[in-house]
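Re: the 224-residue chain
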Amino acid sequence: MTLVLHFHPLASYCHKVLIALHEIGTLFEKRVMDFGDEAATARFKELWPIGKIPVLRDESRGRTVPETTIIIEYLQQHYPGAHPLLPENAEARLDARLWDRFYDLYVSGPMQKIVGDHFRPDGAKDAQGVAEAMATLETAYGMIDRQMADKRWAIGGDFSIADCAAAPALFFVETLLPFSKTHPNLAAYFGRLVERPSFARVLAEAKPYLHFYPFHDRIAARFR
């Protein structure tokens, strides 16, 4: 198959790209990464020495595409769907890119910090870093709640790259710092995201792996 996605079903950044792929309807091959397999990891690092997923390989074009935002922009350029994930209007496209980066940097980033700290051994935990990550999430929640006061999707009426970034980020941070009772516009937006067929499919495919997530017991019953 032309497109091969190197990914893991539990990784939130992989979810972002999977949502985009399901939205545009492009056929692709899934290649689950097992970083415990040294040989497979070595082969993967021949494609992308940094060694982080997801990575898209386009065999027909001989192109390896890393980084979630770049992958989605690449798909938009070469494998567009009926509804573009980056708007044609220049100003709207800037908004989509802004909120894509916002969710990656100020929602997913703090989430990764908090979850990563959980796995640190005693004596190596970063309490201050976790506190700072929580504070960033509090600020982000307020900004999202205001942004979504009059919008269906992240930048307006159309689903975009920003929503691809928002869905997995919000899914996991809700288990760390719940927002459903404190930020009604954010909570309503999240409800629409989990009902979106592309994200619902990603969650269904992740279900067998959710027990590996350290805070899986906090995932609401409707997502199990």
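Helices lie at 12-24, 38-47, 68-78, 90-118, 127-147, 161-173, 184-195, 197-206.
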